[in-house]
Amino acid sequence: MPAPDDLSALMRAARKGDDEAYRRLLVLVAAWLRGVALRGLAAAGRPRADCEDVVQETLLAMHLKRDTWDETQPLQPWLRAIARHKLVDHLRRRGFTDHVDIDDHSDTLAAPEAAEEGSALDARQMLGRLPERQRRIVEGISIEGQSAREVGVRLGLSEGAVRVTLHRALRTLAAVYRKDRT
User: Fold this and answer.
1) What is the crossing angle of helices 75-93 and 4-15, to 10°?
2) CA-CA distance, 37 to 136, in Å (whole number)?
3) Is 131 helix (H, G, I), strand (E, B) or coil?
4) Is the pTM of this model over 0.70?
5) Cβ atoms of 55 and 39 closer than 8 Å
6) Which of 1, 73, 94, 117 could join 32 in a cystine, given CB atoms 3.0 to 4.6 angstroms apart?
7) Closest by alpha carbon to 117, among 178, 37, 51?
């Protein structure tokens, strides 16, 4: 994994609209998250096949909550907190009730003092509320790390249409998120 400062710089650039920085950030974070998820799943005695679900849910949460990250802080602890919550949520949904001593995993799943709010929201359930085209665009850009141009080619849309649809989808997801929190 690159230095935390590199990830922080990529996230700052992405939040300012740099699509290439966001794509690079997603690729790097996804690779790192796979390691975090695999270690957490192994410690819980769960199958490796569940890894991609945890990674995708974490990436979606990162995307939806990216504006809550404090740019004066390193990105990595914020990401670890999200990953930790998504792993716990995943294990709970799968009926995992055994005790896992969190101290054994504090180096990989350490959370900052301010934990992610609303971590119980299920990313797949939220995405399922979107129309198919919006869902496919959000998955392509936010989860798979594709560019708006790549998604547009795949779906037969212009890059501008993909960006407009992504914006509308994210606005819908934010409204669903706020509604589900109340």
Assistant:
1) 90
2) 24
3) coil
4) no
5) no
6) 1
7) 178
- Smallest CA-to-CA distance from 60 within 138, 130, 137 is with 138
Which of 7-11, 69-73, 80-84, 142-146 is the least confident region? 142-146
Contact 134, 169 (CB under 8 A): yes
Q: Could you tell me how far CA 22 lies from the centroid of its own chain?
A: 12
Structure tokens at 17: 């609209």
Instruction: Name the one residue in this structure whose structure tokens are 């949520």.
Output: 89
* Cα(95)–Cα(97) distance, integer angstroms: 6
20-62 per-position pLDDT tens digit: 999 999 999 999 999 989 998 888 888 888 899 999 999 999 9
